[in-house]
Amino acid sequence: MNGQDYSASIAVTASAHEVFKSINNVSKWWTEDLKGSSARLHDEFTVRFGDVHVSTQKIVELVPDKKVVWLVTDSRLNFIKDRQEWNNTSISFEITEKGGTTQVHFRHIGLVPAVECYSSCTKGWDYYIKGSLLRLLTAGEGTPGSK
Q: 3-state DSSP helix/strand/coil percent for the chain, to nearest 5?
């Protein structure tokens, strides 16, 4: 664990179960251009954002209504020098219920200020976690990237 890893938190009134289901419905909040499955332990899925970003994630930890962790097994980030910078990083969602709200603590483990894509990638994650996922959980419709 590294305190410099990118992290973001959101709180909603949806149940932990609804939050968990929504996180795993990746095409509703991250990108509509998804191939594979993002529902069960060991599932693999690939997301694409045009010619800018393609990455494959494997679900390596899945605790219903509490936690989801993806391992990035392959990435091509075409806007930076090391296009595979996300390889072997982990994307983690921890879900807790407290005082009538459900909190999501998101971390991209390995996305630290020292890596080239940090500035651009944190802006992207801010949009998708604090914007699209939050909107999906509060208004019923996210704003994923399109095909």
A: 25, 40, 35
Which distant-in-sequence residues (6+ apart) come within 8 Å of 121 by Cβ? 6, 77, 108, 111
Name the CATH superfamily for 6-139: START domain (3.30.530.20)
User: Which pair of tokens denotes residue 41?
Assistant: 């332990």
Q: Mention every residue, 6+ apart, whose C-beta is less than 8 A from residue 69.
A: 59, 60, 61, 62, 90, 91, 92, 93
Helix (DSSP H) and strand (DSSP E) numbers for the chain: 3, 7
| 15-47 tens-digit pLDDT | 999 999 999 999 999 999 999 999 999 999 999
pTM: predicted TM-score of the whole model, two decimal places? 0.94
Contact yes or no for 66/95 (Cβ under 8 A): yes
Read off the tokens for 49.
């954002």
Domain ranges of the chain: 6-139
Model confidence at 123, pLDDT cuts 50, 70, 90, reads very high
State which H helix or E strand residue 106 sits in. Answer: strand 101-109
